[in-house]
Write a structure and sequence with these properties.
The protein has 321 residues and is an alpha+beta fold. The protein is 57% helix and 12% strand.
Length: 321
């Protein structure tokens, strides 16, 4: 499925938030910050910190790396990003780039619909409640998304000037052909349970002819794979935890079942569903993919250089109590 522009943009917004780690002490609790051509108020900075923490938590909450004070610790980076955005919005105006009411509404509806489905069980009330826990409103989220859309349209216009020729792509492929080779892959399904006696009974049932997908959907505690009959899709070597990976790759023929495999997650029964041999892909097969990768790299470099230029141009010069 091709991701829409709005959802690609939301991904960029989240990614930008996660790399805004400049670090260093920065007293901002009682100041406004002036820079060449404008200023960032204390209230604006506090609002952005809340938006950043909200967006960060959507991705990081529940992970071992989650930091509940991420935005506070990274406030200098957030401030620099805000100043860069002011220059970007000004540049968009200078280039005649704007967001129509229809574009704004379509973008907001698509992103908020995706957020509700992805994180809030499809409920707008749950989204509003989550925002309020950060002292944020839907209106403030929508304003945040609209400004991001304006910046994204500027980036689209700048990126459109980058063209990769067939000859350039082939030279790149010749230097990086191994990156486009397809490694050996296996497709496996599994059933995961927590108790040894239970998995032993399941293995007996499977060996007597019970349907694997049916048992997986009924018994597996891995709810994501259980919804598709235990299917874990195509994987390369090393993607699973060691005990599971070793057992899965030891299977040799489609339909073969593993012995019981114990991991930190519980007890697994693994079935091999298919195996693909490694193969090299010709330039003709990957030409468009190579161009896409090269264009992405060139766009990132150009955009990074442009943001560095904006940061230099900003010249933060005064702190007002």
């Amino acid at each position: 499925m091709i991701m829409s522009r709005s959802l690609r943009l939301w991904g960029l917004v989240l990614a930008a938030i996660l790399v805004v780690t400049i670090g260093g002490a920065f007293a901002v609790s009682r100041v406004s910050v002036a820079y060449a051509g404008g200023f960032v108020s204390r209230r604006s900075l506090e609002l952005r910190q809340k938006q950043v923490q909200f967006s960060y938590d959507l991705q990081a909450l529940g992970t071992s790396s989650h930091d509940p004070d991420f935005a506070s610790k990274e406030r200098r980076g957030i401030l620099e990003q805000m100043i860069a955005e002011r220059f970007l919005l000004r540049e968009a105006i200078n280039r005649g780039i704007s967001v129509t009411a229809e574009e704004r509404q379509e973008h907001i509806v698509e992103v908020t619909t995706w957020l509700k489905k992805q994180y809030f069980n499809g409920s707008e009330d749950n989204l509003i409640e989550a925002l309020s826990s950060y002292e944020l409103t839907m209106q403030e989220l929508e304003s945040y998304l609209t400004e991001a859309l304006e910046v994204y349209k500027l980036r689209e216009e700048m990126d459109s000037a980058i063209v990769v020729s067939d000859a350039e792509a082939e030279l790149f492929y010749q230097a990086h052909s191994e990156e486009y080779n397809i490694p050996e892959m296996i497709r496996v399904s599994h059933i995961l349970v927590t108790d040894l006696a239970g998995v032993e009974q399941l293995l007996v049932q499977l060996k007597s002819g019970r349907d694997f997908a049916e048992l997986a959907s009924q018994q597996s505690i891995d709810t994501i794979s259980a919804a598709v009959g235990g299917d874990l899709n195509w994987r390369v070597r090393g993607e699973f935890v060691a005990e599971f990976d070793d057992a899965a790759w030891a299977l040799s023929s489609a339909g073969q079942l593993s012995a019981i495999v114990a991991t930190d997650y519980g007890y697994h029964i693994i079935r091999l569903d298919g195996r693909l041999a490694a193969r090299n892909r010709s330039f003709a097969e990957v030409q468009e993919l190579v161009k896409e990768h090269m264009k992405e790299d060139l766009e990132a470099t150009m955009w990074g250089n442009y943001l560095d230029e904006l940061r230099t141009r900003a010249r933060i010069f005064i702190f007002i109590k």
